[in-house]
Amino acid sequence: MPQSTTTGVVVEIKADMEFLNAAGKAYKGTRFTYSDDRSGDIKAQKFHENVMKYSPEVAKGLNTLVKDDEFTMVKEKKDGSDFWNAISISKGRDTGVVNTAAPTAGKAAPTKPFVSTYETKEERAIRQRLIVAQSSLSTAIGCLSDKDKLSEKKVFATAENIFQWVMNHKEEVVDGNDVEMGEMT
């Protein structure tokens, strides 16, 4: 995919702004205003709030830059798209970034090293524990709401019992249709 590099100086970064898309629908985002090195013009780039969630290189750059910082922004144009999307913003001017807009004859275009965005095994385990904890809390509220006056202490104690049972439960093969479930303690 073709890439383009922009360098310049930060004029302003303003988060939590409301913009209108081409259809007139409002969305929240961040406006990045800068002085472009190539043209000397003041330009602005709008970033939808999802960019801040799903593009860590852009989010990190925008969160670390302040007024008058020099920066480098790398944009990528996906095949068949009319739009250039920022894929990274970093502090400082990096004039050594390779422009891959068109490979030279007989040579392959340079490629970026692969960087996985998938969760690690540890991150998945943490996320799974959080999901079970949240589900245990919901289940505890559902179990208690019909017959008891809800108290925070009772809900959390019941949720902890459910959580421990789920996390420590060992799956067993059961023969027959008579399955009994033990009491939670």
How many beta strands in the DSSP annotation? 5
Which second-level CATH architecture of the largest domain applies?
Beta Barrel
Order of helices and strands: EEEHHEEHH
Instruction: Enumerate how many helices there are, as a single number.
Output: 4
Described by the principal axes of the CA atoms, the overall outline is elongated
> What is the first-to-last residue Cα distance?
58 Å
If you average the pLDDT, what whole number results? 80
Structural class: alpha+beta
Sketch the major β-sheet: 5 strands, antiparallel
Measured by DSSP, the beta-strand proportion falls in 25-35%
Give the quaternary arrangement of the chains. Answer: single chain
CA-based gyration radius = 26 Å
CATH class of the largest domain: Mainly Beta
In order across it, which strands form the biggest sheet? 3-2-1-4-5
Domain unit count: 2
CATH topology (level 3) name of the largest domain: OB fold (Dihydrolipoamide Acetyltransferase, E2P)
Identify low-pLDDT runs.
97-104
Description:
The relative contact order is 0.12. The protein folds into two domains: 3-91, OB fold (Dihydrolipoamide Acetyltransferase, E2P) (Beta Barrel); 121-168, no CATH class. The chain has 185 residues and is an alpha+beta fold. Strand 4 and strand 5 (84-91) form a beta hairpin. The N and C termini lie far apart (58 Å). Helix content is 31%, strand content 28%. It has a five-stranded antiparallel beta sheet.
